[in-house]
């Protein structure tokens, strides 16, 4: 994916003949989409780049493919020792292997200033990622400033400074759009919602200590009508604020302890005939949320537990597989049941270790799970996840890049591009390129970038 | 070490009475050292800080103690919710537990721009570190621009841009001095010297493949007079460029394979009666280097193998213990033999892992090794080492801080300051303080700093 060496046309011997490239013509075939439209899962990112003098031509069906081709063109240009800019004659037909290539950023465990998010969007474009999975709120804080429910961030954010206003959110979405990147927000319920409870009365389940409320709260309370009234209004807002066709609804790691302690919940379980199977209660809740979101004509993504716990899902639900333990089996089950899947499990980049862990991420073959051709087609991509427990603006960029670049290439390039030594060379060059472009990508190993300046 | 809560005088109830502090008087007892002198191992860093209105008094024997006291004073000042700056009445007598509290930076595996080094010196001062162990050259590159031997960096640096000129080195030393920080350069020989060989003919041992030279080179060639002529001149320069009383001479990880392959070296071994004990050859070499450096009235530090391999050492040699395996035993042996020791083994901060590894560094008790009181006194401190294989300017600061702060407190504060919960609170505050001061210290765990700004 990165670097020019692979694109050198065999049979031509550079630099015996140097010619001038005077122009790059960009031709977009599709009359639609217009300038105000957004990238979609079904968008074409294919492009055909022909570099010959004096005019290079970049052809794409859609503007999104043209963006990818321009990125490639910019990576093909290199500077020689005399300061001239060169590009080899090339003929490239390129397109992504997977349609969904995402980066998850978590703005709840730590607040990320807008600048960090925008810089990361730049880096994503340099690495041909096309989805920002914005894990915007969680237990720890609620930085999203809601229009209908301003108390959620007033009380649930770390402070009045640690919020994303509607203007901020619009800026992120527009900055992403201009780079061909979808923004899929995640509003994870019913678990991971402690911060929601601060600004929204009666939303969370009161936990009990024997006969008495303990004073602490559990997941969203699934037995109250008020919960669904709130969610209806809340997701109406979210559906209109975020233009993408998908919303991520979370659904992971729901602890049943608090529900089990609450006498009203127990009574409700009995009425519904759920017995003591709290996964049924979770599914009951999730089903209602899915219905709400569907009614706004949005598709949804969910974490794998929603599938595991047998919530009834719309056929086009996207299930995100995150548990590292036996994820191939999970991919097999999800796709066998006919659901679209996204793979995140092997790419939790918040986990760090000494050395070159990019090789591990690079070596994953997403389609290496048991299943039919039809099943394989249901795996539409993957995500590199940088959860925020130990990450904020101080270390986000070097922790994410170039480690995520390895995931980016895996998701874009052909399955047979697997040579680690070759990848190392191209990644090292690409890392220096990112540095030149203002992305503080950390080194892969010992060495240097030619452009690095001495002193200040 | 960090934060104000511990210093609040018992018996006084703040903020019932608010008074004005109009002045901080600094009194330095010693007429010497004058302004142009450098911090030394024997420098006093003790200070006595009395904060009462209207005049606070900071007393110290030497300017170095006054610097530490000013740092403490700056950390005691805090801002209330209304923007007033407050400081509690306090009476603090403070001094370091260990005299040598170092940070090792490696500028060979990756070049660090001057700015990174200076920023790190600021951070060191904020954390009361007093030694920069500058691992300036190694196998990978030779960024030190020598006055006598300019070819060393001309050919051994990554490029002409990846060097430290004499002016750069003077700037680092002066910037450090103003913060009470000694700069101890390391010129590691006879191993770790591949980059030296590029600019200095015949310095390295030619390795053999059977009867023939293989074309590759091993450690410094210990059998040639020219080697010692070079080293005599080279260390004369180093002794004059670096004002500190100590030079670190390395001596670690010397591979004997190349020496063993070389027929001239084998012949020399026979002549000297070393048999096949190449550790004796290593000691022979080291002994000569020590004699050279001693002749310039410099003391020296060495890595533990120099002691392990039984080189004859001057009694005041400082032995740095770095091997993680059984370092307590090594500390015991080194001090039993009467040598001064520095502990680095448990504080290799280049090793990273997921989570709060600062706790591990914080929990080390350096004196927890078998030995007499006299032996314990020979352990004069420790160093946090950030080796550069995977570190450059992009990630140095967040990788080093606040993890090194844990080591800093361990080396400064009393041995009974061990409470992790208490340390967590103070470290978190201190990390926010570092951020405000321009040090991109990474987060310890989830949370936020009050001053963090929204948006850009």
Automatic annotation (TrEMBL), chains A, B:
<dbReference type="InterPro" id="IPR029018">
    <property type="entry name" value="Hex-like_dom2"/>
</dbReference>
<comment type="function">
    <text>Hydrolyzes the non-reducing end N-acetyl-D-hexosamine and/or sulfated N-acetyl-D-hexosamine of glycoconjugates, such as the oligosaccharide moieties from proteins and neutral glycolipids, or from certain mucopolysaccharides. The isozyme B does not hydrolyze each of these substrates, however hydrolyzes efficiently neutral oligosaccharide. Only the isozyme A is responsible for the degradation of GM2 gangliosides in the presence of GM2A. During fertilization is responsible, at least in part, for the zona block to polyspermy.</text>
</comment>
<dbReference type="GO" id="GO:0060473">
    <property type="term" value="C:cortical granule"/>
</dbReference>
<keyword id="KW-0458">Lysosome</keyword>
<dbReference type="InterPro" id="IPR029019">
    <property type="entry name" value="HEX_eukaryotic_N"/>
</dbReference>
<keyword id="KW-0326">Glycosidase</keyword>
<protein>
    <recommendedName>
        <fullName>Beta-hexosaminidase subunit beta</fullName>
        <ecNumber>3.2.1.52</ecNumber>
    </recommendedName>
</protein>
<feature type="domain" description="Beta-hexosaminidase eukaryotic type N-terminal">
    <location>
        <begin position="19"/>
        <end position="76"/>
    </location>
</feature>
<dbReference type="GO" id="GO:0006689">
    <property type="term" value="P:ganglioside catabolic process"/>
</dbReference>
<keyword id="KW-0443">Lipid metabolism</keyword>
<comment type="subunit">
    <text>There are 3 forms of beta-hexosaminidase: hexosaminidase A is a heterodimer composed of one subunit alpha and one subunit beta (chain A and B); hexosaminidase B is a homodimer of two beta subunits (two chains A and B); hexosaminidase S is a homodimer of two alpha subunits. The composition of the dimer (isozyme A versus isozyme S) has a significant effect on the substrate specificity of the alpha subunit active site.</text>
</comment>
<feature type="domain" description="Glycoside hydrolase family 20 catalytic">
    <location>
        <begin position="98"/>
        <end position="414"/>
    </location>
</feature>
<keyword id="KW-1015">Disulfide bond</keyword>
<dbReference type="InterPro" id="IPR025705">
    <property type="entry name" value="Beta_hexosaminidase_sua/sub"/>
</dbReference>
<keyword id="KW-0378">Hydrolase</keyword>
<dbReference type="GO" id="GO:0016020">
    <property type="term" value="C:membrane"/>
</dbReference>
<feature type="active site" description="Proton donor">
    <location>
        <position position="253"/>
    </location>
</feature>
<keyword id="KW-0732">Signal</keyword>
<dbReference type="GO" id="GO:0005975">
    <property type="term" value="P:carbohydrate metabolic process"/>
</dbReference>
<dbReference type="Pfam" id="PF14845">
    <property type="entry name" value="Glycohydro_20b2"/>
</dbReference>
<keyword id="KW-0325">Glycoprotein</keyword>
<dbReference type="InterPro" id="IPR015883">
    <property type="entry name" value="Glyco_hydro_20_cat"/>
</dbReference>
<dbReference type="GO" id="GO:0030203">
    <property type="term" value="P:glycosaminoglycan metabolic process"/>
</dbReference>
<dbReference type="InterPro" id="IPR017853">
    <property type="entry name" value="GH"/>
</dbReference>
<dbReference type="Pfam" id="PF00728">
    <property type="entry name" value="Glyco_hydro_20"/>
</dbReference>
<dbReference type="GO" id="GO:0005764">
    <property type="term" value="C:lysosome"/>
</dbReference>
<comment type="similarity">
    <text>Belongs to the glycosyl hydrolase 20 family.</text>
</comment>
<keyword id="KW-0968">Cytoplasmic vesicle</keyword>
<dbReference type="GO" id="GO:0004563">
    <property type="term" value="F:beta-N-acetylhexosaminidase activity"/>
</dbReference>
